[in-house]
Amino acid sequence: MLKKQYSKSKPICKVTFTLPQEAVNGGNVVKVLGEFNNWSWKEGLPMKAGKDGFKASVELATGRHYEFRYLVDNETWINDWEADAYYPTPYGVENSVIYIESVEIAVPRAKKEDAPKKAKKATKAAPKKEKPAAKATAKPAAKVAANPDDLKKIEGIGPKIAQLLNEKGIYTFEDLSKAKKATLTAVLADAGSRFKMHDPTTWPKQAKLAAGGEWDKLTKLQDELKGGKVK
C-alpha cells in the first residue's frame, strides 16, 4: 500500500510504503528497492515491522513515476498489492509503479520597502548610447511527419493520447507499429494518473495492419477489443 504526502513548499512527496505481514511469509529483513536507490540491497530502504505490517518512508521528487519492488532477506521479490500500475520487465516479471504528480508551489510575496523620506537629488549624467539589441534567433520547430496518419483510428487512442504520441515523435501508423509497449506505457504514465487505465498492448499490432492497408483484418481485430483491450 502507498501513502503520498505532497510538500507545500518544495517539489517533493513523502511516500510511505506498507507491506502486510502475511506477504512476507516469515521473512525477517525487508527492504524497498527501486529506481530511487539504484535497485541496490545495500542502499535499499529498510522497513520496520509493526502492527500494520512492514513500513518505510522516503521523500521523492515530483513530476515523474518510479518503478520499485520489495525484497525479503535479499532473495524473495514481492510486488506492492495496491501499486498505481505494474510495468513488464525483460525478465518475465512485473515491477510495481508509483506516480508522483507535479504540484505547483506558491511563491511568497516580497515585502514592500518603505520609501525614504527625502531622496537625494540625482546628478544628471550624460546619456549613454545603447547598443542595438541583438536579434533573437528563432528556434527550429520540432520535426513533424510530412504525411501524419490519423492515430485515432486505432482502438483505444483518442484525441488527447494521439497528441501525446505526436509529442514523442509518433505520427504515423508505421511509427506506432514499431513502438515498444514499455515506451507507450511510459508516455501514458508521464501524462498523469488519469491515463494509467489505458492499455497500449494491442496498439502496435493494430498500427501494423493499418500501415499495410489491411483494413478488413483491422476491423475484425477491433471487433474483439474494447477500449484497445481484449474483451
Written description of the protein model:
The protein is α+β, with helices and mostly antiparallel strands and 231 residues long. The protein has 2 domains: 2-100, Immunoglobulin-like (Sandwich), CATH 2.60.40; 151-230, DNA polymerase, domain 1, CATH 1.10.150. Helices cover 20% and strands 26% of the residues. The strands form 3 sheets. Strands 3, 4, 7, 8, 9 and 10 form a 6-stranded antiparallel sheet that branches. Strands 1-2-6-5 form a 4-stranded antiparallel sheet. The longest helix is centred in the last third of the chain and has 10 residues, at 181-190. It is flat and about 60 Å long. The protein starts with a strand and ends with a strand.
**Low-pLDDT sequence parts:** 138-142
Provide the CATH architecture of the largest domain.
Sandwich
Helix fraction, binned, reads 10-25%
Distance between the termini: 29 Å
**Full CATH superfamily name of the largest domain:** Immunoglobulins
If helices are DSSP runs of H or I spanning 4 or more residues, what is the number of helices? 6
How many independent structural domains?
2
| Main sheet overview | 6 strands, antiparallel
